[in-house]
Write a structure and sequence with these properties.
globular, 18 helices, 449 residues, single chain, mainly alpha
């Protein structure tokens, strides 16, 4: 196993970020395959594939809400963990890791139980019809068994990356995703399990990934290991984790809100087929947004570490590099999607009726995608420097304050279903610019001049 460590205090900052970002992006790409590959196979099932894709899309809000708690208790602790490492406080870093593990474990069990008990009313509240519920239920009732594995893998892998072992973090997700990719066609088509097979393949792959993460963090190669005596909840540490994790939680929770409102509105104005089209649009967006996520996530521990070490020049260089590289990438991604929307849509569905309508919706949905770079850069800088208030506000602004109302109002104003897809690019422009400009005028100016 390759476990070479990246020293955040030495060498060009951009090299430190790239050294983190490349394996992180690969790892996140593979992580994305857990769900995206499921959708690709499901979208090409014979008979009712478009309805099956719609059913799986209806489970997104539940999955997103689970990830919201993962982000709250997992990603919320990583900046604190990195700062303590940068300050040379090994014992404090160990306690943060143990506290985060305890919170992740408790939340995973709680969410599994609640989701099972209220599964049917939740799915109908999220926009399900009787026809699509069959597929949504078949997927979700198996997927939920893997909640604990998914939460621990995603929530703890950030602590491996924050210790300077991005390649180990990459192996975590590659191992599980390869298993998922192999098992998907076997279960879905070979054993005729359909959407249930897709969920089962995901659960097995997540279990393998979780085992790998725990094995490394409790092993001898971890710089800051997970120790049994530190797996306990401290009121102060929990408060600090939640303060920084709140922005990630709100971002995911508001994504859940937007997905619910979108599904309900699309069902009202267009029916199941438009819910399926939005499932494809979200899937394409997840793919295209992944590299920018890898860039900022790779830069965040580097910025936090150097901020904790009071090397503000290196922290500033990290912020600037994230912004420039992120802007260049999102512009390229925007061009690629708008230029060949049929290719992207065809990855997830061969339903001609859905594709004929969906291609135009995809172009609308991705208009102004480049402004996402500013949202990511501003948001990650607030988090890396411990500015929880601004991070939380701008998480709320784009989704809860802009997208959600527009998703309801634009269709009523005469745009119909197109209004639902138009809400996203409007929020990218307004929210992205507001977040980045505020970051430059507040924490950036205060610390770096």
């Amino acid at each position: 196993m390759q476990t070479s460590k990246v020293d955040f205090s030495k060498g060009p900052v951009w090299k430190c970020i790239i050294a983190q970002a490349i394996p992180l992006t690969i790892a996140q790409l593979v992580q994305l395959l857990y769900n995206v590959v499921d959708r690709i196979y499901i979208g090409h099932m014979e008979g009712g594939s478009s309805l099956a894709l719609t059913g799986v899309g209806l489970t997104f809000p539940i999955v997103t809400l689970i990830m919201a708690f993962t982000a709250l208790f997992g990603m919320g602790g990583v900046p604190l963990f990195s700062m303590e490492r940068g300050a040379g406080e090994q014992e404090k870093a160990e306690k943060i890791l143990g506290n985060s593990f305890a919170l992740l474990l408790i939340s995973a069990v709680t969410l599994t139980v609640v989701s099972f008990v209220f599964k049917r009313p939740i799915l109908f509240a999220f926009g399900s019809s009787e026809a699509s519920y069959v597929y949504a239920d078949a997927y979700l009732r198996i997927y939920l068994f893997g909640t604990i594995f998914s939460v621990l893998t995603t929530g703890l892998n950030g602590y491996i990356n924050a210790q300077g072992f991005p390649r180990v973090g990459m192996i975590t997700t590659i191992m599980g995703a390869v298993i998922n990719i192999i098992l998907d066609p076997v279960f879905i088509f070979g054993l005729g399990m359909g959407v249930s097979g897709a969920a089962l393949a995901t659960v097995i792959s997540q279990a393998v990934s979780a085992t790998w993460v725990l094995r490394f963090l409790t092993g001898k190669k971890a710089v800051v290991p997970l120790k049994l005596q530190n797996i306990r909840i401290s009121k102060k540490i929990t408060g600090d984790i939640c303060a920084l994790g709140a922005s990630n939680f709100i971002m995911n929770a508001t994504n859940c809100l937007v997905q619910v409102v979108c599904n309900k509105t699309l069902q009202m104005y267009g029916g199941d087929i438009y819910v399926g089209i939005m499932t494809v649009a979200n899937s394409v967006r997840e793919i295209t947004v992944l590299p920018i996520g890898g860039i900022v996530n790779g830069g965040q521990p580097v910025i936090s570490f150097n901020y904790g070490a009071k090397d503000f020049k290196r922290a500033k260089a990290g912020v600037n590099f994230n912004t420039v590289l992120g802007s260049a990438y999102t512009m390229l991604a925007w061009i690629l999607v708008v230029a060949v929307p049929g290719f992207w849509f065809g990855l997830f569905s061969d339903d001609l009726q859905m594709m004929n309508i969906g291609v135009d919706m995809l172009k609308i949905y991705f208009f102004g995608f480049v402004f996402m770079a500013f949202q990511f850069s501003g948001q990650s800088t607030f988090q890396a420097l411990g500015d929880a208030k601004h991070a939380i506000f701008f998480s709320l602004l784009r989704k809860a304050i802009i997208v959600t109302p527009l998703t309801i109002l634009l269709p009523m104003a005469g745009f119909g279903v197109k209004g639902v897809f138009l809400a996203e690019p409007i929020s990218n422009v307004i929210g992205g610019l507001a977040c980045y400009i505020t970051m430059r005028l507040t924490v950036y100016k205060k610390l770096f001049g």
